[in-house]
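Good morning C.,

I know you're traveling, so I'll keep this short. The sequence:
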Amino acid sequence: MKALLFLLLATAEASRSGGGRCEPGCVCRGDLRFAICSRALFSRLPGRVPPSTELLDLSHNSVSVIPERSFGRNRKLRVLLLQNNNLSVVEDGGFSQLEFLQKLDLSWNRISSLSRGFSLGLALLRDLRLAHNRLTSLDSRSFLHLDALQRLNLSSNCIRTIHVRSFFSMSSLRRLHLGGNRLTSLRGGVFSMLRSLEVLDLAGNRISETEAAVFKPLASVTLLNLADNRLSSVHFKTFVNIHAYSAHVLLEDNPWSCDCDLQRAFRKLRSVQRLFLDDYDNLTCEGPPVLRGHRLADVDDELCVAETVTVLVISVTVVITVLAAMLMGERKRKRKKRGSTGRSRETCRMSRTTEASL
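The tokens, ready to paste straight into the viewer:
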């Protein structure tokens, strides 16, 4: 009886674990089509995962390499979680067998570059997470085959450079997270194909300048986050070129140089009905020193008044100086004229005296 009971339990467990093909350290449920191998101390990918698995969780292990064609036995995977490993190398075609994969999480690893073959086979991928890695630049090879991608998280890397064609194949992208990197400027054309983009997060970079047309292609954007950068001024054309129906722009925690030009630019932007400066009341001045720490909203009405007064004082001073110079010149001219007339009279008087004596 006990032997029969043991056999029944073993059969049920085998059914749940996908026919007994589950790697030790993993929990496989064939009926639910998932395999949980998190925190199993793996240093390489497990070899025995049921072929019917659609969700494979390999997070919090020590896997360092994804070899070429690694998942040939798991072509049905839809979700692959590899966050919090030691991944530094993804060989070309490492995910090429995963034609049905929709979500790939590679965050919190040590990936420093993406090769041309990184995205091979990922034509249906919708969600790619590469946050907290060591990427330094993006180029035209990085995301070649990700035509269906809708979410891309690249936050908290070391990205300094984004080449113009980096996102060229991503016409379906809706959310792009680039916060916490080392970008210093934004070149025109870098977002040229992202007409479906709704969220662009650039917070926590070192951006101090942007080309005027850089955001122009973002016809669907609803949130543009530029908070916590190094912007000291803003140009009206940079944001008015966004032709989205409703775009919310965040600009808090930048070192604003508060002057009349900044006040004029913000006044114009706030009058554009399709743009919303949600954190305008929190913007603070970094310069000039007399205004440091003051809210822009508290001093913006005075900036142009002060500048107008300064210009008026300078203008009046110039006018007074010119008038004084003209007056002094006229006085000198009159003195010379009087001196010349006096000398002429004296000459005539002496001439008449000489004639009389003769």
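Safe travels,
E.
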